[in-house]
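Invent a record, attention on tokens:
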Amino acid sequence: MSTIEKDSVTGTATTGHEWDGIKELNNPLPRWWLWVLLATVAWSIGYWVVYPAWPVPGLGTTRGAIGYSSRVDHENELKAAKSLQAGMLTKIAAATPEQIAADPEMRAFALAGGRSAFQLYCSQCHGTGAAGAAGYPNLNDDDWIWGGKLDEIYRTLRYGVRWPNDDTRMSDMPAFLADGVLKPNQIDDVADYVLGLSGQKADAQAAERGKTVFAENCAACHGETGKGNLEVGAPNLTDGIWLYGGDRNAIIASVRYSRKGVMPAWEGKLDAATIKTLAVYVHALGGGK
């Protein structure tokens, strides 16, 4: 006849299992815990019957006894939301960006919609906070290549930059070295002159030589004082804000090979109302003029 061994410390019976001198105590789960477990099993079976649960190839999940579908619920919610927005979207599509910004109700709607559209379509390049990166403009500051007024931002959004359409924003800075317009030493000199324009340390003698090179080759677009020209997309070279970097090497690279960044034209990809809400949102970021 077997005897039940009890732990000498706790007085609890053991299971007979032992590992490295450690004996397993026979502490069964409380009865209430087992009943809860069985109840949850029963509940899961009922839930499986009532609600969608069992995947069927080609059909998704079974609809369940009550015919409920979260997908259908979601589709109905989207339809209801679009129905509520339809009137305002129609109103925005028929208005100019200036009219939208001047109307408190439309402006509030446009800012909310524009923020959402920006995160979906623009943040990949300009960043979630619109601060940009090398080659992608910061939309929060007051420095604009093509202008920061509402209608100018709207046009840039519609037609893009260097995009294949007749109305796109187009600036075509020569690749002065690659095109054989300037020699390397001339480019080095004009880089020093441009550094001086933005208040950076530069070689005075090289900058003096570069001043002549600048006047003959760059001033037509950037202006005699280097302050740029929004009509032709020529950046201001005196403010210390740089799209591709403002150190000597970056400036030399820009002059030698040019920069030809591209922004897509959103007309045809987005509806008119969305483009206008984007224009109002970008203008409101803080840098719009």
